[in-house]
User: Fold this.
Amino acid sequence: MRIFNTLTKKVEEFIPNNKKEVKMYTCGPTVYHFAHIGNLRAYIFEDILEKTLNYLGYNVKRCMNITDVGHLTSDSDSGEDKMLKGAKREHKSVMDIAKFYTEKFHDDLNTLNIKWPEVVINATDNISEYIKIIEKLLTDGYAYKSGGNIYFDTSRLNDYYKLTNHKIDDMVVGVREGVEEDSFKKNQADFVLWFTKSKFDDQELKWPSPWGLGYPGWHIECSSIAIKYLGEYLDIHCGGVDNIFPHHTNEIAQSEAYLGHKWCNYWVHGEHLNDSTGKMSKSKGEFLTIDLLKEKGYNPLSYRFMCLNASYRKVLVFSYEALDNAENAYLKLKNKILSIEESGKLEEDIYNEYNNKFKECIGDDLNTANAITLIYDLLKSNASGITKLKLIYSFDKVLSLDLLKKDEISNNLDKDILEKIEKRNQAKKDKNYQLADSIRDELLEKGIKLIDSREGTTYEVVNKL
Ligand code: AMP
Ligand code: ZN
Assistant:
């Protein structure tokens, strides 16, 4: 498999530390609100990455954190605590908020056929581990105490910015919106490992530590959880591109300072889902959740299909028009597949040929768009029904689009078509041939061809996909 590595800024051949098991870590959600479909784009791409590795024969151990403490509104340690903000908004406790939105996040992943990682850890269940790492960083001179907080000293590293493309000044100005300079820091880029003093004394969750009652910084969570559950050598670390700086930059700094060696070989980042004004976020524009799309009548998997038709490394701009197009194409593809008869016998040479092509597509930096095009090619080919169905069953282990599942949505599509046929019959009876023809053309445009016979009108899904 070849994959783009943010660390080297190149597409590279993937070579795991241990062929038997790939260790993969993905930053989890901050559970203070619903995930928007932009967040979910990140988890779709990570799901594809995990399933691609499985398809190519690797065993994957994947771990993810759930951030239920310590993530401030700005990723660089300023602003209000996100969890506290959520709790205040809903007049509930932080614990209740965390529980509710973790369950909701789990449901969203299920709805989008995203596999729940093998190991999922709450940040609040790992406090002693953060303390252990911070103590060592202090002993080794990588951290210092100032104004009641413990900071990581970035000046101790020559390569602090190795994950980013930017110059130091760009990064500081570009990413840190609303920064209030923290006068207790020695260097502008230093970040908090442990807070005992914060502007928000009403912080609900605090733990005793050698430095007083307090709570961990956001970045230390991921490093500690990854090291504890996946060991000292990580193969892949993922997230959205907004995580590159400061979050992942800080993760590398503290993990490598603690371990004393290189920590993770491949850093893989997914680009954002944008709306018409820029990066989709929870605080601006329509708050687009998967539930909202369902309420509006969309099949959630049409959104997955839309994401898979774009490269995970390119910005994808959301619009309802784009989603409509994706839904049309997805349902047409599904109906075409569902109309394949289980006929003929398995043609092994064709099976292997297409299966190899599929592996090439997904192994080429997760080129899911080409993998989907391959399905269209397969449908047009002369392969037997059985060969086609077996291949699609296999490809869907990665794509997870329920391509062979006859569900409510396709039944609804049947219902829609039958209603249109009924309307057309009535129009013909009324001698309104213009309306009858326009219904026929409208369906044909969607790939549904009506067949009139003495027994009545039936339909078939035509090749025009
Ligand atoms: P958060 O819950 O804010 O920590 O974000 C969870 C994940 O969603 C992170 O990996 C982010 O990088 C990612 N993310 C946030 N906004 C977007 C977006 N608009 N498009 C794609 N991924 C995003
Ligand atoms: Zn993280």
In short: The chain has a mean pLDDT of 90. The chain has 15 helices and 18 strands. The pocket of zinc ion (ligand 2) is lined by residues 27, 222, 247 (CB under 6 Å). The first strand starts at residue 2 and ends at 5.
